[in-house]
Design brief:
Blueprint lengths: L16 E7 L5 E6 L2 H8 L8 H4 L5 E8 L2 H13 L2 H10 L3
Antiparallel strand pairs: 1-2, 1-3
C-alpha cells in the first residue's frame, strides 16, 4: 500500500483530487481518479456502488499508487498520461511511491 497520507478531501475546502492505481487479482493495473480513495477502492471491491466494469471481474483489487492534485482537470490529464504509459513504466511509478 502507498505511504501514509490523507486520501480524502477535507470538509469545507476545495476538494482535492487523487489519481490512483489498483492491482487486480489477475495482475492487471487499473487507473482512475476520485476525491475519496478509500471509498473508491471499497467500491471497486464490491462495497457500495458497483465500481468500474473493468474491475468487477478482477476482484479483489489492491491499491498500489496514489497521487494528489489540485483539481479535476489536472487529475484527468494526469490519469490520461498514466494510462498511456507501458506496464513497465507504471510499475516503476508504483515502485517510486514505495508500494
Amino acid at each position: 500500500m502507498p505511504r501514509e497520507r490523507s486520501m480524502t478531501a477535507e470538509r469545507g475546502t476545495a476538494p482535492a483530487w487523487f489519481i490512483y492505481m489498483l492491482r487486480c487479482a489477475d495482475g492487471s493495473l487499473y487507473t482512475g481518479i476520485t476525491t475519496d480513495v478509500v471509498r473508491r477502492v471499497a467500491e471497486h471491491n464490491g462495497d457500495g456502488a458497483p465500481g468500474a466494469r473493468y474491475t468487477r471481474s478482477r476482484r479483489p483489487v489492491e491499491l498500489v499508487y496514489v497521487e494528489a492534485v489540485a483539481g479535476r482537470s489536472e487529475a484527468t490529464r494526469r490519469e490520461t498520461a498514466i494510462k498511456r504509459l507501458d506496464r513497465e513504466s507504471k510499475l516503476a511509478l508504483c515502485a517510486a511511491d514505495l508500494c
